[in-house]
Amino acid sequence: MNAAPLRILLATTDPVQAVLAARLIQRLGHPAPHRVQGWDAAIAAMPEFPADVWLVDSRLLPRDDASATTLPWIITIRAAPSDLQGIPKNRYDDVLGTPLSLEPLSAALQRRRLPGDAPPDDFSGATWSELLRLFGPTGVAELLGALRNDLPTTRARQAQAIQSHDFPGLKRIAHSLRGASLQLGAEDLARLLASAEHAALEGSTEAAELGAQALARYSALIERLDDELRRI
């Protein structure tokens, strides 16, 4: 099995498949998977559950080409080869047949490739120093507290907007996060959020994937800033 336990998201509407997959995943030494019942729900879960691998029923995969969004390693489950007809190959990385069994699942998880690039680091040392100079540790702590307290509401609003295909709502969330990201010196993250805004304005399905990826990075940035504050 993999050297370290993997965080696995399981997307299926089949209760039998869900129980079997969860048992096999745990037998391989990984935590119980986070289960959702649709592609939109998987996208919406990204900020709160940054998975290493998605195990997705082929019936839930989108039929359009994948966007430029960086998604986790996707292993799709199909009953027959014909189940993948009409699904672009860039929508999945590996395939498992049914019924699921231990050895093929273990091999598929071991074939998972890590991204070649290091994960984005949105922390700006220069901006952090300037915030401390302007507001002092107490003021910065209050700012971070307000941003942190807003996160659960933002995650819930984004998840609802993704599930209901509310593009104006996704645009508003991306716009708000872009402003906060710029204040924190996260210019690359702000550019990603600008792309999410544009996609939402165009009514593109990329808006959900870009927005969820950006919110996950924004949440990680707040955690990083909290860590920096504790070191003072």
UniProtKB/TrEMBL annotation:
Q: Name one GO biological process term.
A: phosphorelay signal transduction system
Q: Which GO terms describe its molecular function?
A: protein kinase activity
Is this entry keyworded Signal? Answer: no
Sorted alphabetically, the keyword list is: Phosphoprotein, Two-component regulatory system
Q: What is this protein called?
A: HPt (Histidine-containing phosphotransfer) domain-containing protein
Q: Which residues form the HPt domain?
A: 136-232
Q: Does the keyword Phosphoprotein apply?
A: yes
State the taxonomy lineage.
Bacteria, Pseudomonadati, Pseudomonadota, Gammaproteobacteria, Nevskiales
Q: What is a single Pfam family found in this protein's UniProt entry?
A: Hpt
Superkingdom field: Bacteria
PROSITE patterns recorded for this chain? HPT (PS50894)
Q: Which InterPro entries match?
A: CheY-like_superfamily, HPT_dom_sf, Sig_transdc_His_kin_Hpt_dom
Phosphohistidine PTM positions: H175
